[in-house]
Amino acid sequence: MFTAADYLDLHHTEHRILFDQVTHPWEVLPKIKNYLQERLEPANFGMLVGKPFIGEHVFIGKGTIIEEGAMIKGPAWIGENCELRKGCYIRENVIIGNGVVIGNSSEIKNALIFDEAQIPHFNYVGDSILGFKAHLGAGAILSNVRLDREEVIVTSGSKKFLTGLKKFGAILGDRAEIGCNAVLSPGSIIGRDSIIYPNTSWRGILPEKSIGRTTTKLHVVR
């Protein structure tokens, strides 16, 4: 249960080595910092529109467009053919795949974003993994810290999985869709091809090919 293969197609990230010797996908999150320290070679092969802020420890792939007003603090590894729009904020320890869109007022921190994911409007992604073609509607938030600041626990029925993490947002499976203004509580895991309705406050596990309307109701669409 909760293996990376259950949620993520590792062919859609160039950084699949992060998942070596990992049981649960959230175990990747504390590895991102060291991975970037060891492997990141700063370079810019993209195109800048105006004068965005780009930190010293940033790699930008070919065909990627960085618009004026974007801030890439780094360390960050950004793939090819991405679009980072005006007003986005890429903080520390972020890995972004190919063909990704990150838009206005979207903040990313300690995250792994697979190819072709979209984080386009007013989003927060902290300590999370977004799978291939995962999409956040405008205003969707992946909350990464409990209100009591204690360890984040993944709960599935009567079973509880201790993550060892005090900061852990969500795992979104491939092609997961999160509706506008939805808020995912820390430790949420969303299956492949699943949907969270707009304005939903979601906590816990949503199976693949399901629709989440509230934290207690879901509709399976297999």
Pick out its properties:
222 residues; mainly beta; UDP N-Acetylglucosamine Acyltransferase, domain 1; nine-stranded parallel beta sheet; eight-stranded parallel beta sheet; 1 helix; 29 strands; 4% helix; 35% strand; globular
> Which CATH architecture would you pick?
3 Solenoid
User: Number of helical runs?
Assistant: 1
Spatial shape: globular
Strand order of the largest sheet: 1-4-7-10-13-16-21-24-27
Describe this structure in words.
The protein is globular, with a radius of gyration of 16 Å. The protein is mostly beta strands and 222 residues long. It has one helix spanning 32-39, and strands spanning 43-44, 47-49, 53-54, 58-60, 65-67, 71-72, 76-78, 83-84, 89-90, 94-96, 101-104, 107-109, 111-113, 118-121, 124-126, 129-130, 135-136, 141-142, 153-156, 159-162, 170-172, 177-178, 183-184, 188-190, 195-196, 201-202, 205-206, 210-212, 218-220. It has a single domain (4-220), classed as Hexapeptide repeat proteins (UDP N-Acetylglucosamine Acyltransferase, domain 1, 3 Solenoid). The mean pLDDT is 95. A hairpin with a 5-residue loop joins strand 28 (210-212) and strand 29. The relative contact order is 0.13. The strands form 5 sheets. It has a 9-stranded parallel sheet, with helices on one face. The protein contains 1 helix and 29 strands.
